[in-house]
Structure to design on (604 residues):
DNA sequence: AAACGTTACGAATCGCGTAAGAATT
DNA sequence: AATTCTTACGCGATTCGTAACGTTT
């Protein structure tokens, strides 16, 4: 059944006549009549009482007409919304990032983006790196701000930059002497054999960071003394500053400090900061633009 | 465009695959695919991103799907309502009557009616007899409880009974002596020549009653002295009882009274109590039933 | 005679199924 | 090789317009 019949029914009611309604809708009386008769047959009840004077809706007709009005209202609104989307005037970019990292990046990128696409809203999901893959695969999210240690062949990655993992050591720890004056500028590579038995505030086992650290410690046969775990990089930093134990965090958190010094793990321990999306995902113009300015903002930030 | 596509779109989303959705909906993958492609072409934007893994709704797709859900909800509700109407389980009878008369009849008829058709509601319009014709003709109302003095060829009339017009005369008026003891049982016919110059409380000129009285007075060259007019039969009765003047009202208001006596105008002044409807109006089963029991109730009331 | 709804019929269009193609796993 | 979406093509159903018919004013 053709959708036009819905509008035509309303026309019949408005005009009070099949002939007049047909004229208004640019079809023949015959077609209009056939549409109405077929509809009435389908419903099993007349929608109008035929009077030579006028087409008058029956009780069923009134109910049907009310429904048609509601449906057409929804239909029209939906079509104009979708037309807006097609023209990038409105839309949604769903993106996921980790609680600590993404928000930072996002607040720098968003104002520039909003300039060009004021109608597009971001739907932000916070998730650990491991969960992000699920969100990308099931379509909950189209983009993910992610630190990549091991790539997944189902995804495409746009590299914003690389970041080393840094080891923070309290100044009161004997190891700290090996760091030199300006370790915050260029952290020297640590001799991992020194780390066995050291007290550590570890990243929570839900984090990618923890996987990576476990990985490198296992390779180098380091057995750390884990005091406790935390998902928060801030907590880890403050534990180190308070001379309680050693901790690992991304390079971007490094700042000159009197309470701690920094070491790196060399090339072995670094990851890529990426925006990831499914290989089969069609990138919309706004999404492409978001990725572009993310790269720009990251480069300027250096 | 076939309406089935709406349900099919939801199936594609649910199943995450055209093939599976097609199986569920008992059509071929090909047909399902063609429907989706055509719809997407019409909208000018894809509704799903094709992944070998899954069909994932795009942002536009999500919006479309939401709209479809709303539309199908309205559609289903409407169809079940209309099915109920077709089977007389629910419905509406729109009827008009005069403020004084109809309500009385209606309260007697309604309980019996409700027994058989509990789902049918009455939509009651109060109107003067003269306005009733408009309401019937424009379809606002399908039935009218009406007192018929002159028939209209556009309407069909079901006669419930006839009713004479009665003249009420205060006992203190000299004419009252002519009435005899039990005028409330059988009002004697008045000699209209006695009425010229008498004080009258007249029915309002919007009423059919007034037209009829004017008619008969003109024929008999009676020139009444009109004190004032009222639409309310109750007012007229109380004026007569208070010995202020004479008044006319339907026979059904006659009761034994110490303050007034009754006369009739003979055969000349009587009308038919009817239920009227447009000749081209299709009477539904409940409407037919309502008319039947109206007749029954009227007959018993006598 | 004019206006309007209904019906008959042929032509154009639409929608579906079969079957083959293309791409991915 | 198997699965899934896409495309080609032909058949059958649907829909529309022309035109005639029936009824009312």
């Amino acid at each position: 059944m053709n959708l036009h019949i819905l509008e035509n029914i309303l026309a019949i009611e408005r005009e009070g006549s099949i002939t007049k309604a047909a004229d208004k809708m640019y079809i023949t009386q015959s077609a209009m009549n056939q549409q109405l008769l077929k509809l009435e047959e389908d419903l099993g009840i007349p929608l109008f009482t035929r009077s030579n004077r006028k087409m008058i809706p029956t009780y069923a007709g009134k109910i049907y007409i009310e429904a048609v009005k509601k449906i057409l209202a929804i239909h029209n609104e939906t079509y104009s919304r979708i037309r807006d989307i097609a023209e990038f005037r409105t839309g949604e970019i769903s993106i996921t990032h980790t609680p600590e990292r993404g928000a930072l990046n996002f607040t720098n990128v968003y104002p520039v983006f909003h300039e060009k696409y004021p109608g597009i809203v971001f739907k932000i999901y916070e998730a650990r790196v491991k969960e992000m893959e699920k969100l990308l695969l099931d379509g909950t999210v189209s983009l993910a701000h992610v630190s990549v240690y091991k790539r997944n062949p189902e995804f495409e990655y746009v590299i914003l930059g690389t970041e080393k993992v840094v080891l923070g050591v309290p100044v009161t720890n004997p190891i700290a002497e090996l760091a030199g004056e300006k370790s915050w500028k260029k952290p020297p590579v640590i001799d991992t054999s020194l780390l066995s038995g050291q007290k550590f505030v570890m990243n929570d086992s839900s984090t990618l960071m923890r996987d990576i650290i476990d990985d490198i410690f296992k390779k180098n046969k380091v057995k750390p003394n884990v005091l406790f775990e935390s998902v928060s990089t801030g907590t880890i930093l403050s534990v180190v500053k308070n001379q309680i134990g050693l901790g690992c965090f991304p390079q971007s958190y490094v700042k000159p400090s009197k309470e701690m010094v920094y070491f790196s793990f060399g090339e072995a321990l670094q990851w890529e900061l990426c925006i990831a999306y499914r290989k089969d995902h069609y990138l919309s113009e706004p999404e492409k633009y978001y990725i572009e300015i993310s790269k720009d903002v990251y480069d300027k930030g250096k």
